[in-house]
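Input C-alpha cells:
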C-alpha cells in the first residue's frame, strides 16, 4: 500500500485535473440547454412533453454513476494500472477555439434535426470514396467525419454529451489490457485501435505503455491528421487511413485490438465483418476490447434514455446495436467472451482469441 502522503497527493492531483474539466463541459451543457429553450421560444414551439419519470434515470442516479466512474478511474491510478491521466484538452486558447466551433455548429445541427437532414456529407467529391453508411451527418454535425472542423470540434461535442466523462470511460479499457500485458516486454507487443478518431484513447495507451507499438486505423483523413498532431511526441505510434472491414494487417499479428465508441455506428452486417477482421488479425490468446454504449437491459434504469438517444442525435444503427448479441457473433469467430464491465453510460466488452489448447 502506498504511503498516505503519496495517496493524498495522487487524490489531490486527480481532483485538480478532473474537477475543472467537469465544470467546463457541464457549463457547455447548461448553455446548450438554454440555447435550445430560446430557439423553441423564438419558433413559438410548445415545450416538449416531459417524459414519464420511470423512463429516464434520475439526476441523482446519473451523478451517482458519474462519481462511481471517477472513483474507479482514481482507483486504477492508485493500483498502478495507469499513471495519473493527462487529458491534454489543450491550452486555454485552444479550448476557446474548440468551444467556438462547438457553438458555431449548433444552428446547423438544429436545422438538420428539425428537417431530418443527415445526408449533406454525400457530394460528388465524397461519393464512392467511403462506404455509403459512413457518409452521413452523424450527430447531425457539419461535415460528418470528413472535415478538419469536424475533427477539431469532435472531442468537445463528446465531452459535453457525457458531462466531461468521455475520457474516463475510454480509460476503462486500460485495466483489460493491463491484465494481458503485465510482466511482458511492451516493445514486443502490438496493439491496433480501429476507428481511432482523434487519437484520444491511444494517448492514454501511450501514457501507460510508452514503448508499446500501436497503430491507429480510421476512415477519416481529417481525423487521422488530427490524431497525428495530437500524438506527434509519442514514439512507436503509427496511423493509417483505412477501413476496418479489410484491416491492412497480416493474420495473427496483434496482441490486442481495441475499438472505442465505434460499433454503434456500424450497420449490423458491417459489425459482423469488422468483428471477423478483428479475430483474424489477433494472435491466439490476444484480446479484443470494445468500449461502447450500454445496451438494453445492462442498466434497466437507463433503457428509456438509450431508446430516446437516436431521436436527438442522428445514430441510424443505434437501435440495432442496443440488442446486438456480441458474444453470439464472436463465438464462431474463435473469440471467447470474457466479461462486460459497465462504466456510467458505457460498457467495456472483453473477448479473447482462443488457442489450440482451448
Amino acid at each position: 500500500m502506498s504511503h498516505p502522503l503519496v495517496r493524498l497527493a495522487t487524490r489531490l492531483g486527480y481532483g485538480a485535473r478532473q474537477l475543472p474539466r467537469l465544470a467546463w463541459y457541464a457549463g457547455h451543457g447548461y448553455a446548450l440547454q438554454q440555447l435550445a429553450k430560446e430557439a423553441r421560444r423564438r419558433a413559438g414551439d410548445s415545450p416538449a412533453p416531459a417524459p414519464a419519470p420511470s423512463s429516464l434515470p434520475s439526476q441523482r442516479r446519473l451523478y451517482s454513476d458519474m462519481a462511481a466512474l471517477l472513483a474507479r478511474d482514481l482507483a486504477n491510478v492508485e493500483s498502478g494500472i495507469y499513471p495519473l491521466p493527462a487529458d491534454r484538452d489543450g491550452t486555454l486558447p485552444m479550448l476557446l477555439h474548440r468551444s467556438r466551433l462547438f457553438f458555431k455548429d449548433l444552428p446547423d445541427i438544429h436545422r438538420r434535426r428539425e428537417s431530418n437532414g443527415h445526408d449533406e456529407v454525400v457530394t460528388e467529391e465524397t461519393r464512392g470514396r467511403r462506404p455509403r453508411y459512413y457518409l452521413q451527418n452523424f450527430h447531425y454535425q457539419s461535415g460528418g467525419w470528413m472535415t478538419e472542423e469536424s475533427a477539431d470540434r469532435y472531442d468537445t461535442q463528446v465531452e459535453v454529451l457525457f458531462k466531461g466523462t468521455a475520457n474516463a470511460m475510454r480509460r476503462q479499457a486500460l485495466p483489460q489490457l493491463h491484465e494481458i500485458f503485465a510482466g511482458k516486454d511492451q516493445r514486443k507487443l502490438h496493439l491496433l485501435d480501429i476507428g481511432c478518431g482523434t487519437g484520444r484513447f491511444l494517448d492514454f495507451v501511450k501514457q501507460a505503455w510508452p514503448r508499446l507499438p500501436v497503430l491507429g486505423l480510421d476512415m477519416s483523413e481529417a481525423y487521422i491528421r488530427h490524431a497525428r498532431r495530437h500524438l506527434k511526441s509519442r514514439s512507436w505510434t503509427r496511423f493509417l487511413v483505412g477501413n476496418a472491414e479489410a484491416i491492412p494487417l497480416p493474420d495473427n499479428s496483434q496482441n490486442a485490438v481495441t475499438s472505442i465508441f465505434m460499433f454503434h455506428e456500424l450497420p449490423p452486417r458491417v459489425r459482423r465483418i469488422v468483428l471477423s477482421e478483428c479475430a483474424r488479425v489477433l494472435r491466439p490468446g490476444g484480446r479484443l476490447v470494445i468500449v461502447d454504449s450500454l445496451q438494453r437491459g445492462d442498466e434497466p434504469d437507463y433503457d428509456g434514455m438509450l431508446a430516446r438517444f437516436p431521436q436527438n442525435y442522428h445514430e441510424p444503427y443505434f437501435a440495432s446495436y442496443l440488442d446486438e448479441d456480441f458474444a453470439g457473433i464472436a463465438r464462431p469467430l474463435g473469440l471467447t467472451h470474457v466479461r462486460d464491465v459497465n462504466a456510467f453510460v458505457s460498457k467495456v466488452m472483453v473477448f479473447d482469441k482462443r488457442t489450440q489448447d482451448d
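The first strand starts at residue 191 and ends at 194. The chain is about 45% helix and 15% strand.
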